[in-house]
Design a protein that fits this description.
This protein is of the alpha+beta class. Helices cover 46% and strands 17% of the residues. A hairpin with a 5-residue loop joins strand 1 and strand 2. The strands form 6 sheets. Strands 6, 7, 8, 9, 10, 11, 12, 13 and 14 form a 9-stranded mixed beta sheet that branches. Strands 3-16-19 form a 3-stranded antiparallel beta sheet. Strands 4-15-5 form a 3-stranded mixed beta sheet. The radius of gyration is 30 Å and the shape is elongated. The chain folds into 3 domains: 248 residues, GROEL, domain 1 (Orthogonal Bundle); 101 residues, GROEL, domain 2, CATH 3.30.260; 138 residues, GroEL, CATH 3.50.7. This is T-complex protein 1 subunit theta-like 2. It comes from Trichechus manatus latirostris (Florida manatee). Keywords: ATP-binding, Chaperone, Cytoplasm, Nucleotide-binding.
Length: 554
């Protein structure tokens, strides 16, 4: 029996055939790898229509039954119920990209799916998995080494970052991208340190329903959606803040309770006891010098009246997420009961701010490490505000990366096409398995500008042919635009070098892991432990194994 793989000269001919025409029998390990390819391709099929500035959105029904209209890859992947381990691994890789660079999750999913698809063709052509992994690793190293040579522009230390951030934020479905980019650029520039460093935590984002996106503005300090409820509407000096995730008033039991009152005296005692409890709670807050209470819950009128007399500003918050953010910034716990915190949050001043029909509460500090500005976003719908908020965060993350490395690459698929050209030229000269692997890597890179053209509604075959011809002549600034090919330098469409390099590293890691998968082993759930007084050691030896093997068939 011949166990040798196909020789290198035979691989190009075999790769030209359809996978079904390759008659070589696949081993069990290769079949498992092909099942991983199928899972990755299925995930990429879901994400592909959302890629790029002309990507479409999806109506996403979450596990809680909430319907969300979104085109963000991170949100879609988070809501999907995945079964195949390869799909789980790919989602984890894309989340790593989102956490480290803020964007590029769709890039990771699509490129990984395309590389695994090409790996399937190489396997069917007879390339052993070990050689495939080594060849893919060499191609990834070549791509990362070549990437800095494609840099065409850098953001200057005293330059307005608007032009660099616009292409990043323009990938989101927004009606006023230019206006929002201008606000984000102003906030980033204003909070940049004198030494050129930038801390993205110094910029907050607050969403307020009402008006339009053009009514958004910058507010000093940290602003959250909420309203002052009592007569005390501001604390202008030495604010000491307590955060409560409970009603501001007497505790309400989870189970319904009925007071047993047999006489008017019992009723008076019950009322007096409630009033004494309210006075005690407010007195405890005042004794700890708490003068600002932020509440996520209902506010009792009597308790609010006592707080007014004690000079405590009571704020009713609207979002638990903002309460958690306040807890992190103020370094004080979010309390489940109306008790004073051991360490209250401190800031310089707290006051309410009216923005048209919306209300926000602003917390200001004087220390340099605290939040300096808040981008108050306005919008008519929750979905529109969610999209604007996500775009703003991506712009802030992009500026943070540019402060670390200001280099920019051609966008709109031009970088991927240029890398594909370089890999193809080198792959044709290489002997052994590296040659076909380099060509396969190049083909996977070409799938990204192809997805951009497809989502823009262009004639994909014609656009790709023209783009290929332009890059062959040495014009690597040609990318995919709304109406056809564009010069990315003239249209100011850029990709950040740090984000692109990190995305390629993440893709290389996950693909190199999946091409070496030999078998998918799933552990069965352990049965509930039951004490058996008459247990027999011989019977225990006959218990079945708790490990079950699953072979996903393609």
């Amino acid at each position: 029996m011949d166990t040798k793989g196909s020789s290198a000269p035979e691989l190009p001919q075999l790769l030209g055939q359809s996978p079904r025409r390759c008659t070589r029998a696949l081993g069990a390990g290769e079949k498992n790898m092909l099942s991983s390819t199928t899972a990755a391709q299925a995930l990429a099929t879901v994400i592909r229509p959302c890629y790029g500035p002309h990507g479409r959105q999806k109506l996403l029904v979450t596990a809680t039954g909430e319907t969300v209209c979104t085109g963000y890859t991170t949100a879609i992947l988070r809501a999907l119920e995945l079964e195949h381990p390869a799909a789980w691994l790919l989602r984890e890789a894309s989340q790593t990209q989102a956490e480290s660079r803020g964007d590029g999750t769709a890039f990771v999913v699509l490129l990984a799916g395309a590389l695994l698809e090409q790996a399937e063709l190489l396997l069917r052509a007879g390339l052993p998995r070990a050689q495939l992994r080594e060849a893919y690793a060499a191609a990834a190293t070549e791509v990362l080494a070549t990437l800095p040579s494609l840099v065409v522009r850098s953001l200057g230390p005293l330059e307005d970052p608007f032009w660099a951030l616009y292409s990043v934020m323009n990938t989101h479905t927004l009606s006023q991208t230019g206006f929002l980019t201008k606000l984000v650029a102003q906030a980033c520039w204003a909070t940049r340190e004198l030494d050129g460093s930038f801390n993205p935590e110094r910029i907050g984002v607050c969403t307020l329903r009402g008006a339009t996106l053009e009514d958004s503005c910058l507010l000093p300090g940290l602003a959250v959606a909420g309203k002052p409820c009592g007569q005390v509407t501001m604390v202008l000096r030495g604010a000491r803040v307590a955060l409560f995730a409970c009603p501001f008033g007497p505790a309400t039991p989870n189970a319904p309770a009925t007071a047993c009152l047999s006489s008017p005296d019992d009723l008076n005692k019950f009322r007096n006891g409630s009033e004494q409890l309210i006075e005690k709670q407010v007195f405890q807050l005042a004794a700890m010098s708490i003068n600002v209470a932020v509440v996520l819950g209902e506010i009792d009128e009597k308790t609010l009246s006592r707080a007014d007399r004690s000079g405590i500003m009571v704020i009713q918050a609207k979002s638990r997420r903002e309460m958690v953010y306040l807890s992190e910034v103020l370094d004080t716990p979010l309390l489940p009961h109306l008790l004073p915190p051991l360490v209250p949050g401190k800031c310089q001043r707290v006051y309410g701010q009216e923005l048209g029909e919306g209300l926000a509460v602003v917390f200001e500090w004087d220390c340099p490490s605290s939040p300096a500005l808040t981008l108050a976003l306005r919008g008519a719908t929750t979905e529109g505000l969610r999209g604007a908020e996500q775009a703003a965060y991506h712009g802030i993350d992009a500026y943070s990366q540019l402060c670390q490395d200001p280099r920019l690459l051609p966008g709109a698929g031009a970088t991927e096409m240029a890398l594909a050209k370089i890999l193809s030229e080198k792959g044709r000269k290489l002997e052994g398995p590296d040659g076909p692997a380099f060509l396969a890597f190049a083909q996977a890179l070409r799938s990204l500008p192809e997805a951009l053209a497809e989502n823009a509604g262009l004639a994909v075959a014609n656009v790709m042919a023209d783009m290929y011809g332009a890059h062959q002549t040495g014009n690597f600034l040609v990318g995919v635009g709304e109406e056809g090919l564009i010069n990315v330098a003239q249209e100011q469409v850029w990709d950040i070098l740090m984000a692109k390099a990190q995305g390629l590293r993440v893709v290389a890691d996950v693909v190199l892991q999946l091409v070496t998968v030999d078998e998918v082993v799933v552990a069965k759930k352990s049965p509930p432990q039951q004490q058996d007084l008459n247990s027999d050691s011989k019977k225990a030896k006959k218990c079945p194994s708790l490990v079950k093997k699953y072979i996903w068939k393609t």
